[in-house]
Amino acid sequence: MAQHGGRQHPPAGLRGRRGRPLHLPRGDPDRSPEWPTIRPHRLAVGLYNVKEGRLVRDGRLELDVDGERTEIAELAGEKKPDLLLLNDDDLAYAKIRLDDASLLVAIDFLSAIESPLARSLVWGSAWDSTRDAETAARDYVQLVLRNIGAETESTTLRTVLAQVQTTATMYVAPERRESTLEEVGDAFWTLANEAAPGSDAQFQFLKAFAAVAHTPTQLDNVQAVLDEKVALDGLDIDTDLGWELLIALAAGGRAGREQIEATLASDNTATGRQSAAHAFAALPTASDKEAAWKSIVEETNASNLIVRSTGLGFLRASDPSLLEPFVARYFGSLTTIWENRSYAIASGIITGFYPASLANQALVDATRAWLEAHPETPALRRLIIENLAGVERALRVQARDAA
């Protein structure tokens, strides 16, 4: 069972005691002093209870939410359900929250909700509250690992797998990052093996596994799949998937430049060259990161897609300290890049080589210092401010996870 600390402010869920009316707070959590409008919403409230291993909707109320609080007199005196879902059936465009007890139930039983739409609302609410540092990142990891294996919607599956990777690499407290990444990787491998043969889920779980594999055992499994010594029933290792497995081996130090070059020789296509650039940049030594940096930042002949692929590999580092020497170089090169490259190339470098995966205060301080020293060029500043916002968010979420 996951543990929870106190919230920073009341959750946007139903609260109250038996015998008293329950209330909905305002339906617009993003309202700020600059945008004080309270928007009315028509939404439904779903009441879900665990029955024989399933999470079943026992009741549903539809109502208008308008103003700071909306009383739901119909629920006065009723027993609180195991999980209470605001905006059930997705009637309104609104940001919702689960109360603490509902989140605990979701961690154990989300996969037992039959409705894909209801599941997606819970997934979305849990992700939003994690990103907003209202719930612990470790709880989101457990929600995913305990329930994603039963998810049937391909888009939901792909989105949640990407989100839990972000959570494991940037949002959990730094002291538990390594153990979380190992747990996530092991879980993805198990899920890939347990998925229906030839299914989209099997394919997505294997791709997600390759994206985080870094321990000796995990890399052994990547190598075995690529060499077809371990077969996942129904899975076709096509060229694109082969590249993803090779990139994982490159990032883990199990494949070098010769193997990447040999693979490129057999797939000397536009996508093959992009994948090779990704793999070269993912190699895990200081000299490899230096080569990736020079090939894009100091040389000027790379295409937009090669810039993007190289940036993906450059930022992939099991040891984020490999990126620390590039912080000062990044900020020192910004003006030159902005003034001498096309907008597409410049923005690709500025966003793709910002070492966000460091996710630490030193990066925040360096970013703020550059912004203070460069008040000109609004378009460039906007890109840097967006980069900064992502890292500041990560630090807030890390602090909440450590609490």
UniProtKB/TrEMBL annotation:
The UniProt record lists the ERAP1-like C-terminal domain at: 84-393
> Could you tell me which InterPro entries the record lists for this protein?
ERAP1-like_C_dom
The UniProt annotation puts the region (Disordered) at 1-36
**Which Pfam families does the record associate with it?**
ERAP1_C
What's the protein called, per UniProt?
ERAP1-like C-terminal domain-containing protein
Tell me which species this is from: Naasia aerilata
